[in-house]
Amino acid sequence: MSQNKSDAVWRGFMLKCPACGEGALLHHYLKVVDHCAHCGEDFSHQQADDAPPYFTILLVGHIIVPAMLTAEVIWHPPMWVDFVVWLPAIAILSLLLLPRIKGAVVGLQWAMGMHGLGAETKPAIKP
Ligand SMILES: [Zn+2]
């Protein structure tokens, strides 16, 4: 099987095992599975910590703020429209992206052999 780091990141983003692309990577919304149900790859040491929320906030902000400013300049909507449109958009986008971004971070960590603090670094995918 030919594989590179971008495959592992994409498989993680699609919430699949970065090793085989078949088994689920997360359960209960944000919990990383201990082992892939399909190939048995060990994910028990994977810790994404604060990276997924950070990248989610960064991405959602870069999507919502320009859209909000553009709408403000073009239509000048009243304040209540901003609350009704943008607050749910921020919440929905954040909830949809957070697990996928966590999957992508775990996929990259797995590909680079980053298996938790103090663990030996041994890349799953050679550079
Ligand atoms: Zn797998």
Question: Could you describe the 3D structure shown?
Answer:
This protein is mainly α and 127 residues long. The protein has one domain (5-112). It has three helices and two strands, in the order αββαα. A hairpin with a 3-residue loop joins strand 1 and strand 2. Zinc ion (ZN) binds at residues 17, 19-20, 22-23, 36, 38-39, 41. Zinc ion is lined by residues 17, 19-20, 22-23, 36, 38-39, 41.
Number of helices: 3
Strand content: under 5%
State the helical fraction: 40-55%
Order of helices and strands: HEEHH
User: What's the mean pLDDT score?
Assistant: 92
Major sheet size, sense and barrel closure: 2 strands, antiparallel
| Count of folded domains | 1
Give the quaternary arrangement of the chains: single chain
Q: How does the helix and strand content classify structurally?
A: mainly alpha
Q: Radius of gyration from the CA trace?
A: 18 Å
